[in-house]
Amino acid sequence: MSKKTLTLMSKDKQLFNIEEHLAVQSVTIRNMVKEDGASSVIPLPRVDSETLALVIEYLNRQQAPEEDEDYVKKFVDERGEIPTLLELAQAALDLDIKKLMDAACMKVADLIKDFTLEEVREALRIENDRTPEEEKAIRDEFQWAF
Amino acid sequence: MKLYSMSKYKVIRPLQPLHKKMASSQQPTSMENLPNDILLNILIRLPAKQLGQMRCVSKPWEFLLSQPSFVKSHLHRSTNNLNDEIFLVLPDGDYEDVFSVTAHFSRSPHLKVANFVKLPGIPSSALDKVIFFGSVNGLICFGFHTYHHSDDFVIQIWNPSLSAVLTVPPCDCIHDLDFLHFRFGYDPKTDDYKLVKLMNCSQRSFGTPKDNVVSLNRYFITDAQDLVKVEVYSMRKGSWKLITNRLPSHVRVLSDAETICTDGHDGHLHWFGNDFGVGSQKTIVSFDFGVESFGEIRLPDSKTKYHPRRWLRLGVYNGKLCVTAMNVFKYEVWVMNEYGVTDSWVKMHVFFNYRGDMKPYGFTSNNKFLFRINTRVRLDFKDPTAGKVESFVIRDGGDPELGDENCSIY
């Protein structure tokens, strides 16, 4: 008897097959399978194909449960760039794969941990939406942190 | 499909998919587009000091970081994180009188404590009169006179990460600090922060100069039991409550001076109690935040006798109540394996042969022994199991200043 396979579709319309018993590590997919059997293609409109490929790789891992923690850490370590990690985190959030999301977020936190304010803005490409005066007011209030 | 409903992700801005990573070098990936779930998951892992800076990143970040729910979760996380920073309360730069030391082992043990926090909102005239009542889970409780009015004694609970200060509502009868004693702590059962106030209503002075507010908090003469009024402030309820439970009747003096902040010990406060006489016996007086009543714990038999040259310090070691007994050349650490059971005291460690005058502060949350030798600007760690000593330097400061926040109790 062949194992049941599900098909996931990325934002850019690429299709990925994955065995159902592995896919249901995602709470989102598990709920969908429970509700309607999810026989058709499952669209993931916010996950691009490269990220989805990573998620599939993660879901397909063949790890003993006691080595799983280490595996997840290593898995995100090897994809140690912030944009990749953020997309991975977002996919893991959508699919509700808590371990993967936590690991990705932890890695991002590790990467930006020693960053200064400016470095964080630059690394995450966030625009400063404050005037210098407004910024100074906060700096004064949080003097101890600078 | 529930999965993609917008309402699921409490967003600040409408959700947009992230740009593909291939394009990320040309097209900016912006975290502003990230769901708050992810942003919070990342930010909660950052040290409080950095979060203080990160408020400047953008307005949405500031909004997120100042949410009480975030601060609470961050506090909770830091408390459970053994790799955090050291926190010391140093009144007036005088390390002889460290009132409460609350510490997490530092991520980098050789750190210089470079960041000092000034207590917020205290008039400079009152700065040298600040009394620390304790510090738990990164919250710091202190009191000071405003001097605008002789009765004006202000008690505040401060959260440095949030930069929030809570002023405790004035309590009854606070006109003479000679007869007052406060301790701050946390009750894990009700997830509540509480402040205990002991007040001796007998109005007899015991020769302590009135203006020396700081020293007044170190000893509390219980005198006649009936005249001691006990009140507890609950942060959750926001109000004071009179406690009718009495201190053990033979205890005449509570001393705080030899006490490392032990407020974190599973919802109990501890003091040494003395019956105040020749050959007097020492004991431990406890206060249970849960049931709001006093109790007594016997010291190890060899430590009950009062001796002027032998100090005792209370602390917490590995989550258990401990007593550090200091002799001239050695320091014994006794641990109470089963809380409240006298027979369960065990001599856990003996430290010998430290050059000079060693002053122990207690144990960090991962059981490193924190102490100072001679100089005022040096504190040392000793990991009792590894037997190695790490040290860090404290900057000499003028005002009451605080080291890195992000702290917890031993």
Automatic annotation (TrEMBL), chain A:
Pathway: Protein modification; protein ubiquitination. GO terms for biological process: jasmonic acid mediated signaling pathway; protein ubiquitination; ubiquitin-dependent protein catabolic process. It comes from the Eukaryota. Pfam families: Skp1 (PF01466), Skp1_POZ (PF03931). Residues 5-62 form the SKP1 component POZ domain. The keyword Cell cycle does not apply. The keyword Cell cycle does not apply. Keywords: Ubl conjugation pathway. Residues 98-145 form the SKP1 component dimerisation domain. SUPFAM superfamilies: POZ domain, Skp1 dimerisation domain-like. Belongs to the SKP1 family. PANTHER family: SKP1. Involved in ubiquitination and subsequent proteasomal degradation of target proteins. Together with CUL1, RBX1 and a F-box protein, it forms a SCF E3 ubiquitin ligase complex. The functional specificity of this complex depends on the type of F-box protein. In the SCF complex, it serves as an adapter that links the F-box protein to CUL1. Part of a SCF (SKP1-cullin-F-box) protein ligase complex. This is SKP1-like protein. It comes from Centaurea solstitialis (yellow star-thistle).
UniProtKB/TrEMBL annotation, chain B:
This is F-box domain-containing protein. Signal peptide: none annotated. It comes from Centaurea solstitialis (yellow star-thistle). Residues 28-74 form the F-box domain. It holds the Pfam family FBA_3. PANTHER family: BNACNNG10540D PROTEIN, F-BOX PROTEIN CPR30-LIKE. Gene3D superfamilies: 1.20.1280.50. It comes from the Eukaryota. InterPro entries: F-box-assoc_dom_typ3, F-box-assoc_interact_dom, F-box-like_dom_sf, F-box_dom, Gal_Oxase/kelch_b-propeller, SCF_F-box_component.
